[in-house]
């Protein structure tokens, strides 16, 4: 039972870490956030990119998620 609870906690922590890395990556609007000639009074930048989905930023969250999955599997067969 302890493996299952610990695995669920690790998976949740990894998911929160990855979501936080995507959300808190940078400002959505403001000076320097958009590189196009669109009006600057918008909340969303013209191009955000998908770099926030990369392995370089999310590897701690992915590691926590995988560790949690392994602990859940160990708890299921224990």
Describe the structure concisely for a colleague:
With 78 residues, the protein is mainly α. The chain has one domain. Helix content is 58%, strand content 0%.
Protein architecture, described:
Keywords: Membrane, Transmembrane, Transmembrane helix. The chain crosses the membrane at residues 59-77. With 78 residues, the chain is mainly α. The protein has one domain (1-23, 46-78). It has helices spanning 2-23, 55-77. The longest helix is centred in the C-terminal third of the chain and has 23 residues, at 55-77. The N and C termini lie close together (9 Å). The mean pLDDT is 79.
How many β-strand stretches? Answer: 0
- Class computed from helices, strands and strand pairing: mainly alpha
Major sheet, described briefly? none
- Along the chain, the helix and strand elements come as HH
Transmembrane segments: 59-77
Keywords: Membrane, Transmembrane, Transmembrane helix
């Amino acid at each position: 039972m302890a493996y299952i609870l610990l695995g669920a906690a690790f998976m949740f922590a990894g998911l929160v870490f990855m979501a936080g890395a995507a959300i808190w990556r940078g400002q959505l609007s403001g000076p320097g956030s958009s590189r196009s000639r669109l009006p600057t009074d918008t909340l969303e930048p013209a191009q955000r990119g998908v770099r926030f989905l990369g392995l370089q930023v999310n590897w701690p969250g992915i590691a926590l998620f995988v560790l949690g999955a392994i602990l859940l599997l160990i708890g299921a067969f224990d």
